């Protein structure tokens, strides 16, 4: 889709559709009021007939509005004006995109980006609209032989700003929004690929392609390399598969020399049968999504590079396939991790922590400023938090607060969880330094406690994304979360490193001060 940022009056737009907002009680937004005035009250008359009341997310498409140059005017319900916040803005944008997809319009100009929203600036409005627009158009149909029933795609979307002086700020927001959306698309594509295509080798090739495209560094450790280093834990997971495991490292040297890097670590189990501790057959097809942690850190890495963040960022992906075979690890086996700690494998279906622990130890060589690992680690996380939020664990309160702030800013929620010493007790083993599971109670917590044993050398956080990485049912597929959160976290880190104030939006002008540069109409 092509995007433009322009300033101009809505009645002068020669386009297939102009999108404007209506609050409850039929109160017109500034752009809608301009159209109403030029059309001699046409929109007000329609609203008085009761076809629309401004309920949040409702839409009404009007054709041939008098004295306008556009084919259609779309009215989008904004809800109560006093309650209009970030969530309502996102809901209104999503509603407009869904309604557009049901029309024949292939180009549109949206004036929702001019709405007044407290504590939010033009950059944020444009960034959010652009990201939502690309995400709404996402389709994964590359394996379908026929796609004729696919909805008509919007080819061009112009996002309007009130004044010419807002254009530069809007362009900055557009770059950010598209970068985040592209990162989410990469994460969704990787997550949605079947396990017979997206193997550890495929993830490695994807990383190499990213490095070549953006001029970054890429290193892939093969099975022999990991064996030489002593990564017995990671290697144990891939023993049952004909697909060899990989440890993938991407580096973006965007910051100054000597700046300690921020490291993102992703769990890349490209298919998880559970191994010898075999999962139930029902729903096992969804275990292709068990590499969504890897997909999200690759997506966030791409977004950071597209945005040219002045920050040193390293992405590490621990990739393997967990299969049962005569060579697979067995319950009761003991392996030695890269850290030297021995692990008793009580359950081969708790394999994510086995690949991550060696990847986390490997990160010590980078002398990182912070490490954040991302994993679809436990079903217990879904029991605790549902599908609304990722579980957040950290060994540093300040890092936890950073991630919570970034999550709130990106509307990609997290919830902090405890790792008290009492939880570590259940991981004791009679035969090794630590067991890989501690029973069902507090399963997501004890999994994080296991990982924490391998992160003593640096500031670390763990995101359990099992509840948010994909959807089941009719909307089955990867979501691209938590790419927005991770990208915002990296942006905040870059701002802090540069001595800038972390951006949380600036107040918009009052509605009474909103005006258009008529000579900039297009």
TrEMBL record:
Enzyme Commission number(s): 3.4.11.1, 3.4.11.10
Cofactor: Mn(2+)
Stored InterPro entries: Leucine_aapep/pepB, Macro_dom-like, Peptidase_M17_C, Peptidase_M17_leu_NH2_pept, Peptidase_M17_N
Catalytic reaction(s) noted: Release of an N-terminal amino acid, preferentially leucine, but not glutamic or aspartic acids; Release of an N-terminal amino acid, Xaa-|-Yaa-, in which Xaa is preferably Leu, but may be other amino acids including Pro although not Arg or Lys, and Yaa may be Pro. Amino acid amides and methyl esters are also readily hydrolyzed, but rates on arylamides are exceedingly low
Segments forming domain Cytosol aminopeptidase: 347-354
Superkingdom of source: Bacteria
PROSITE patterns according to UniProt: CYTOSOL_AP
GO terms for MF: manganese ion binding; metalloaminopeptidase activity
Cofactor note (record): Binds 2 manganese ions per subunit.
Active site (record annotation): 279, 353
GO annotation, biological process: proteolysis
GO CC field: cytoplasm
Major site of localization recorded for this protein: cytoplasm
Binding site for Mn(2+) 1: 272, 349, 351
Family, similarity comment: Belongs to the peptidase M17 family.
Protein's UniProt name: Probable cytosol aminopeptidase
Organism lineage string: Bacteria, Pseudomonadati, Pseudomonadota, Betaproteobacteria, Neisseriales
């Amino acid at each position: 889709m092509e995007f433009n940022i322009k300033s101009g009056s809505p009645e002068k737009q020669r386009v297939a559709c102009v999108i404007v907002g209506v609050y409850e009680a039929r109160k017109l937004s500034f752009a809608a009021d301009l159209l109403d005035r030029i059309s001699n009250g046409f929109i007000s008359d329609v609203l008085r007939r009761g076809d629309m009341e401004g309920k949040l997310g409702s839409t009404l498409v009007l054709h041939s509005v008098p004295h306008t140059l556009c084919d259609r005017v779309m009215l989008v319900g904004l809800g109560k004006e006093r309650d209009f916040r970030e969530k309502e803005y996102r809901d209104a944008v999503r509603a407009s995109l869904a309604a557009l997809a049901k029309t024949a319009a292939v180009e549109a100009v949206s004036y929702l980006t001019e709405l007044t929203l407290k504590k939010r600036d033009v950059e944020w409005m444009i960034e959010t609209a652009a990201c939502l627009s690309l995400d709404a158009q996402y389709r994964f149909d590359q394996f379908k032989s026929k796609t004729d029933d696919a909805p008509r795609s919007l080819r061009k979307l112009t996002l309007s700003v009130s004044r010419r002086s807002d254009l530069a700020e809007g362009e900055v927001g557009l770059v950010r929004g598209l970068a985040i959306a592209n990162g989410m698309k990469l994460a969704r594509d990787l997550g949605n690929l079947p396990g017979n295509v997206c193997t550890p080798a495929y993830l490695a090739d994807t990383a190499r392609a990213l490095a070549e495209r953006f001029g970054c560094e890429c290193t892939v450790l093969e099975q022999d390399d990991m064996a030489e280093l002593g990564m017995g834990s990671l290697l144990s997971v891939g023993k049952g598969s004909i697909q060899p495991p990989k440890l993938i490292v991407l580096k973006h040297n965007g910051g100054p020399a000597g700046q300690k890097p921020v490291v993102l670590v992703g769990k890349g189990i490209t298919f998880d049968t559970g191994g010898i501790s075999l999962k139930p057959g029902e729903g096992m097809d969804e275990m292709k999504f068990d590499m969504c942690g890897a997909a999200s850190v690759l997506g966030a890495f791409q977004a950071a590079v597209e945005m040219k963040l002045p920050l040193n960022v390293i992405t590490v992906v621990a990739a393997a396939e967990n299969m049962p075979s005569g060579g697979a690890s067995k319950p009761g086996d003991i392996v030695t991790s890269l850290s030297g700690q021995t692990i008793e494998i009580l359950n081969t279906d708790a394999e994510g922590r086995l690949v991550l622990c060696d990847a986390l130890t490997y990160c010590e060589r980078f002398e990182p400023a912070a490490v954040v690992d991302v994993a679809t680690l436990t079903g217990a996380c879904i029991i605790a938090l549902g599908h609304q939020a990722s579980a957040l664990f950290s060994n540093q309160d300040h890092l936890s607060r950073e991630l919570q702030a970034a999550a709130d800013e990106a509307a990609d929620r997290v919830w902090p969880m405890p790792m008290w010493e009492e939880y570590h007790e259940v991981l004791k083993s009679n035969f090794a330094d630590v067991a890989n599971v501690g029973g069902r109670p507090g399963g997501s917590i004890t999994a994080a406690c296991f990982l924490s044993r391998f992160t003593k050398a640096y500031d670390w956080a763990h995101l359990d994304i099992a509840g948010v990485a994909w959807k089941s049912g009719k909307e089955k597929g990867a979501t691209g979360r938590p790419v927005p959160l991770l990208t915002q976290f990296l942006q905040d880190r870059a701002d802090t490193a540069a001595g800038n104030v972390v951006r949380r939006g600036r107040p918009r002008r009052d509605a009474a001060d909103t005006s258009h540069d008529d000579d900039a109409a297009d």
